[in-house]
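Journal club prep — side note

Before the paper discussion, L.F. wants everyone to see what a predicted structure for a comparable chain looks like in token form. Sequence:
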Amino acid sequence: MFSLRSLLTSRRPLRNFVLLDTQGICRAFQLSAQAPLGVGWIEVSEQRLAWLHRPLPSSARIAPVVTHSAVGKALAA
């Protein structure tokens, strides 16, 4: 049975990741709220079984979100 807390707390959305080998061939898929640990995992827009054991199309990649902290940065004058 669900608790009231689980109904009121927000859940992080699940994201699609693929594992690429050194030649850019798709070897595995993972659906997760955060990026998997390890080398070769990249985020993609969707999962398609047709990509498995084939090169990943460049249009499938999602550019990583880069966040910079504004604390401690001085502006050049």
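L.F.'s comment for the group: The chain has a mean pLDDT of 82. Keep this in mind when we get to the figures.
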